[in-house]
Input
Amino acid sequence: MTQARDTAPGPTREMFAADEAARQLGIELVEHGAGTAVLRMTVTPAMVNGHRIAHGGCVFLLADTAFACACNSHGPVTVAAGADIDFVAPAYEGDVPVATATERTRFGRSGLYDVSVLRGDEVIAEFRGRSRTVGGARTVHDGARAARSDARAVRNSTTRES
Output
């Protein structure tokens, strides 16, 4: 897996290094900066659907990962509050789509990010993500630990009620 050109440690690199889904799909962090990120992946045979084109979920995951890298570049743990994607053209096995995320605005604990997914010069998809910062100065690992704790609490309360 290729890491960002910027080798300085930081919240984007820390979060991306812990992203098992991105690792399993072979997503590469090409570059990143404040409010921006560029990622790529190669469409493998396991990523194509019954029409022999890249599954929309794989394209969405690439765009969502670029969004996550961009919105977590500022430090506090930030998650998706929502996202929309428009698929413009298909990607095929062997293609290498590149997702470029750009911060549009941040306000309070929220933000808006646009991600363009391209194959060469051709747009494959356009993604709009809405972010929400969930903690003050928590690290990625603190945020993951808190999310696991919250999920356990929900499971335990559901089990007790059943």
Q: What stands out?
A: Residues 140-161 form the longest helix (22 residues). The chain has a mean pLDDT of 85.
